[in-house]
Structures are given as structure tokens and as C-alpha cells.
Amino acid sequence: TVRNQPRTTQEDLVNDLKAAGTIVTKKTIVKILCREGLKSCSARKVPLLKKAHIHARLKFANEHLNDSEDNWVKVLWSDETKIELFGINSTRCVWRRRNAAYDPKNTIPTVKHGGGNIMLWRCFSAKG
């Protein structure tokens, strides 16, 4: 169940097993999941990308894979972040293996619209 639906809660697992006629505690479930190499982690938030976005990013990466260091010195890198002013950005836990943080089953897609927030923008280059 957890491999197919990583957002399954301990309570859901206890209830599913109870319905199947097996009574176990949450502690037992956690021990078994840990033994299987899974741990409870906050789901990563990632941009909601369409297939066209993913292909464009991959195309860009492949086109610039062998660019020289002199070329990258000319690049200005930038990023932006949104900070919520109202409300709480709740975190959701998932059961995942090491190095599986960005598996689509273990992430929460985000969008960049809505109210009650501020946008911060920053950039840097090879020179600082």
C-alpha cells in the first residue's frame, strides 16, 4: 500500500489491517516500514510542470551539456520564491526510500497564483 500510495498515514494502515482481520499498533507499522528502508519525510514541493516544460528543460540541458566554463561565466542565474503572508503552508508526510525525494509519488505540485503572499527575486553570477 505504501509503495503505491506514499501519502498513506499510519492510521490508514491500522484501519486497513483491522478491516482485514489483523490488529497491529502504529508503532509496529513504523518498525516494519523502517525495516523495509522507508522513513516518514515531508513531501517535497515542486513546480507543477507540463510535459512540454519537462521536454524544454531536458532539451536545454542537453544543448548546453558540453559548454565551456568561459560560456557559463557570462550567465546570470536567478531565482524567485513566494512567501505566504496569510495561512499556513501545511506539510504532508510521505513514506519513501533514500534518494526518492523527487519521485512524483513523493512530491506535492505547487502553482504560482493566489493571494496573500510576496515574491522575492534574487540573482547571482560567476563574479558574485
UniProtKB/TrEMBL annotation:
Coiled coil regions, renumbered to chain:
none
InterPro entries listed in its UniProt record: RNaseH_sf, Transposase_5, Transposase_Tc1-like
According to the lineage, what is the superkingdom? Eukaryota
List the Pfam families: HTH_Tnp_Tc3_2
A GO BP entry is: DNA transposition
GO MF term list: DNA binding
Limits of the Transposase Tc1-like domain: 2-66
The record's listing under PANTHER family reads: SI:DKEY-77F5.3, TRANSPOSABLE ELEMENT-RELATED
**Name listed for the protein in its UniProt record:** Transposase Tc1-like domain-containing protein
The major lineage groups are: Eukaryota, Metazoa, Chordata, Craniata, Vertebrata
